[in-house]
């Protein structure tokens, strides 16, 4: 992953709230009623709702502005103080005197939630607040790379206001990302993308998402009915589905899941941050998966710093190269699992005798066509049949290990046959990649894969040329 060193200006509009926790223990039942008596020992408050999105953005390094509506009460003062602690300006928080600022209190006894009680207003904001929000937005719209609408159904993001925000943003080429609420998503029409989870997407489309076909159907409906540039559906441990012209699933990268609280806020914040750094939507979703992988490994609503994400990504790739070299039986099981996860499999093959820059660039381009690159490597016996008795220079085990160590190569499988047809039948790749010299020729396995991609070689770079130069130098030295 490239370093993300920009600090994009991102605006968050939505329902702000405070998540309040009372921590204690329970040793007895009340004599007044059959209820637990909790001895509260600690109290804490953190930003919740749209505030958690803001917290994630700040932690990543964004410059964040917020627009919302709050009450004229002590909870509002507490909320402003929490925003000031993370250095977020509060001047665009609009006060409605009769409104209660949202506060959700949770009573925790011996690490278990016993009770939650909410104090809040959920009525739609008034017309004056609506006008003030639009006025503030119009004054500053050009400074933002994106706007996040964080809708918790507490009355700030009314249908009229949401549509007005999206209209202004689109007129100024500012992307609007929405964390939606409810079953009717028509209020978000025209947004860049929505980030519903699987359950929310099912409720909004009336489609049970049970396989790739139904996932595509639900994604299409959301994209078309809401006039989105791209449709996203978060799939918990399966990752995030992206639908623009076709379906792509970016798999999750979480190793251990302790708590999914706030993971959705992390995802939308991370996507907006990555887009603001110039990544495309697929790269941004991959980044968001890494951020979510960090967050779900923590307890409670959490955030992920860039350093934590970089370290986490690095740790995922710290495996011995031997673990990426597979037998036919192993790759059969693995390919089936990859298909079930919705990953796009790319396959290529070759001798790769003396690795050079042409090989590396070829493999990097091959990997760019999907999620997983499987490389079929000609065994020594196969190379001799193709290249003659003096080849290969390097043994199949040496070649396999070096190839498996490349970042672009996910798995290497050695095959004895002259062609990899049986291996391709076993893997059933989505994309088959060969060199540009196969233009106009029949390619082995083309009848199995969904598509064929031809990659041009780097001029003058080949194992044969390398060997000739070595032989020439050897003669000169003699």
TrEMBL record:
Record-level GO cellular component terms: cytosol
Gene3D superfamilies for this protein: 3.40.1190.20, HUPs
Domain (Carbohydrate kinase PfkB): residue spans on this chain: 9-304
Statement: the UniProt record of this protein carries the keyword Kinase: yes
Keyword Oxidoreductase: no
Pfam families, sorted: CTP_transf_like, PfkB
Segments of this protein annotated with the region Ribokinase: 1-319
GO BP term (any one): ADP-L-glycero-beta-D-manno-heptose biosynthetic process
Reaction equation(s) it catalyzes: D-glycero-beta-D-manno-heptose 7-phosphate + ATP = D-glycero-beta-D-manno-heptose 1,7-bisphosphate + ADP + H(+); D-glycero-beta-D-manno-heptose 1-phosphate + ATP + H(+) = ADP-D-glycero-beta-D-manno-heptose + diphosphate
Region (Cytidylyltransferase): 347-478
Similarity annotation: In the N-terminal section; belongs to the carbohydrate kinase PfkB family.
Protein name: Bifunctional protein HldE
Organism of provenance: Aliarcobacter vitoriensis
